[in-house]
Structure of Vesicle transport protein GOT1-like:
Amino acid sequence: MDFFDTTDLEKYGLGLTGVGILFSLLGIIFSTRLAAVGNALLICGVPLIIGLNSTMRLLMKPSNFKGIIFYAIGLFLVVIVGWPFWGMIMEGYGFFLLSSGFWPTIAGFLLKIIALGPLLIVQFIRWARGNAILHKQRLAHEQDVLVINIFIYSSI
């Protein structure tokens, strides 16, 4: 019985992507060539996982152009210039921007993991409390500015 209902192409894509990530990380430490091969494997593996139509839709969204540009700059830095560390940082940021629409799904999946879920919930509650406090401070500041503006304009 399979855990996931995957096709052979998706399995090949997962393998290529996994080896690509491994080679990219090893390329930062050992050799620029490993990083270049890792990038090639990633570029081949991801479309096999999500499908060619989904890949084209993802890449053609105007909101994703910034992520594509950062990924391309990182790819240029790794493959052409030979700076794997800075290239991987740029590629990572580009990938983060490209996959920003998937983060709620990923967060939901991570919260369902038995050992990790409760830990993440505690961290999320701390983060939400901190944001609520900042939001209250921001609202109080905006109200103060509004009162000052009303006072200034009413005295003119």
Observations:
- The mean pLDDT is 75.
- The CA atoms of residues 15 and 45 lie 7 Å apart.
- The chain has seven helices and no strands.
